[in-house]
Design goal:
Elements: H1 3-6, H2 36-52, H3 57-81, H4 83-86, H5 88-113, H6 121-131, H7 135-144, H8 147-169, H9 175-194, E1 199-200, H10 204-210, E2 213-214, E3 217-218, H11 219-236, H12 239-249, H13 251-256, H14 261-287, E4 289-290, H15 298-309, H16 320-339, H17 344-371
Antiparallel strand pairs: 1-4, 2-3
Helix pairs in contact: 2-12, 3-16, 5-11, 5-12, 5-14, 5-15, 5-16, 6-8, 6-9, 6-14, 7-8, 8-9, 8-14, 10-14, 11-12, 12-14, 15-16, 15-17, 16-17
Length: about 375
């Protein structure tokens, strides 16, 4: 029952609505569907959630900070490695390194913006890459075209995401547990299908389409760019994106406004699964092989990039631009360590330190915003 109905005058008085009414809490009371203006009001609230959680000007400041951090890493790279780091070829290597993790991170941004988490995307990537390179799938691809392998990977990724979404939204399983179970199950199924062997891509049309460069830039980088632009548009310019922010900011208010929170949650995990399927196609295009080890621990890199980019782990605020910058920061940092022959352990320590600093800054900024 809406607020204006609770304040309505009793029947028989001037201005009272015609027809019988039910008292609040009475046995005969029936739920009143949200009015159209109420849904529109929540849409406006969803758009304003980012402002209350540090969007608007705060968002611009965060993006600027990420750009400065990325520029600083590049300066350090140039000072320590010189032209080896600053060459065009090395820049393309960094972009290629960022592309697959970047696509996973775009899908992860939507899930975390809604207050969820998905630990399974790396394993789902591995499963999709294996399923798309089985003998049966590649035989069909030889007959009907390389698109069969692409559709197979996308279908496997989306299906895994739907299973996650159903368990979380309708089965009421905690997101951490549901996606952790999928992480283990998907990796195990990939090992079972591949028999722990690497499956080479033998479909020449697939390799011709997805490997190599387009206009001097690796094709997987173009795919990442398209996914990033599509993700930005979906989150910032559509009702779906505003509802995602609303669900993350206050699920109960979103439900009362008429948003199907459970169904929307399922859609978000399906979207993350679809992103994992796209990343699997990119992995096959880059390596030319499907393996149960593909995507190992990629979920952690994706979550790290999203958090460093400025998306709140508690939900209610998300940024695709920040996520892309977060991915580029980690990819550039990794390349910097490789160029300077630093131990991989140092890379992991640096990543951990960056994540901790990012979360601490988030908590400080959120608490300061709450006080104001």
């Amino acid at each position: 029952m809406s607020e204006h109905q609770l304040s309505a005058p009793p029947p028989g008085t001037p201005g009272a609505p015609a027809g019988p009414t039910s008292a609040p809490g009475s046995a005969g009371a029936t739920p009143v569907p949200p009015a159209a203006d109420e849904s529109a009001r929540v849409e406006r609230v969803a758009r304003g959630t980012g402002s209350r959680r540090g969007g608007a000007g705060g968002g611009s400041a965060r993006i600027l900070g990420l750009v400065v951090a990325l520029a600083a890493i590049c300066v350090v790279g140039y000072v320590t490695a010189g032209s080896r780091f600053a060459s065009i070829d090395n820049m393309l290597v960094i972009l290629s390194l960022a592309s697959i993790i970047g696509v996973l991170s775009i899908g992860m941004t939507f899930v975390i913006t809604a207050g969820g988490i998905d630990l399974s995307v790396g394993s789902v990537l591995g499963l999709a890459s294996v399923w798309a390179t089985t003998v049966a799938t590649q035989t069909m691809a030889d007959q009907y075209g390389w698109i069969v392998m692409v559709l197979c990977a996308l279908a496997v990724g989306t299906a895994a995401g739907v299973v996650n979404g159903v368990l979380i939204a309708y089965g009421r399983v905690v997101a951490f547990i549901a996606t952790l179970a999928m992480l283990v199950a998907a990796r195990g199924l990939a090992e079972l299908i591949a028999q722990r062997r690497t499956q080479l891509v033998n479909v020449q049309s697939f390799q011709d389409t997805l490997r190599g460069d387009l206009l001097g830039v690796p094709k997987i980088v173009w795919i990442f760019a398209v996914v990033a632009v599509a993700g930005w548009f979906l989150l910032n310019r559509t009702t779906f994106g505003r509802r995602t922010v609303a669900v993350g900011g206050n699920p109960e208010a979103a439900r009362l406004a008429g948003i199907a929170v459970k169904r929307h949650t399922m859609y978000l995990y399906a979207l993350a699964g679809l992103a994992a399927g796209i990343a699997a196609v990119m992995m096959l295009g880059r390596t030319g092989a499907g393996s149960s080890t593909n995507g190992l621990l990629y979920e952690l890199d994706a979550i790290a990039a999203v958090v460093v980019g400025g998306t709140l782990l508690s939900g209610g605020r998300g940024t695709i631009v920040g996520t892309v910058l977060g991915v580029l920061i980690f990819a550039t940092l990794t390349n910097l360590f490789v160029q300077n022959n630093l131990d991989s352990s140092v890379q992991q320590i640096a990543k951990g330190a960056i994540i901790v600093v990012a979360v601490l800054l988030q908590q400080r900024f959120t608490s300061r915003t709450a006080r104001t």
